[in-house]
């Protein structure tokens, strides 16, 4: 695999340009998928997109985790549950992605569940105008049929994954994701982030 080194600022600028070129739908859904570093990259695209006249909203997938009673049904350190049961795919689809459809309401819920307090957030919906962009970041976003228009996958080598993921018990979940979904084959852009200060874009 060949990677092109790029600075974090240049990466944000290049991705912003790619996203801004998407005009096939009234509103655009972007996924920033990976085990680490997804939030900062998604947030780094918000201001540049706004400068281009594109309303941009960052929606962390962590705001769509399922209640603790469901996430931890098999214990708090079950890698299979982490992979299949933690993220509320239905809620993310219903409250974020479906409203972005051309015939959708355009009103997005920025978070559904407060995992720390284990209760509903009760946040107000945010209207996303035409040409607006919603950036959803998190882990295991691919392979589940979520309707994203553009996907960035942050790839980590096995050694970097062990270093950068604080929950060592969850490593089998990431290995399963890699083997079953092969996210690099589904993404529009793959970025190696072993060192987040020195990313590199995969060039096939």
Describe the model.
This is Uridine kinase. GO terms for molecular function: kinase activity. It comes from Amycolatopsis silviterrae. The chain has 204 residues and is of the alpha/beta class. Helices cover 33% and strands 21% of the residues. The protein contains 8 helices and 11 strands. The protein has helices spanning 8-20, 38-51, 68-71, 79-84, 89-97, 158-164, 171-181, 183-186; strands at 3-5, 28-34, 56-60, 107-108, 113-114, 119-120, 126-127, 133-138, 150-155, 189-192, 200-202. The strands form 3 sheets. A 7-stranded mixed β-sheet has the order 1-11-10-9-2-8-3. A two-stranded antiparallel sheet has the order 4-7. It has a two-stranded antiparallel sheet with strand order 5-6. Strand 10 (189-192) and strand 11 (200-202) form a beta hairpin. Helix 1 packs across helix 2. The longest helix is centred in the first third of the chain and has 14 residues, at 38-51. The model has no long low-confidence stretch (mean pLDDT 97).
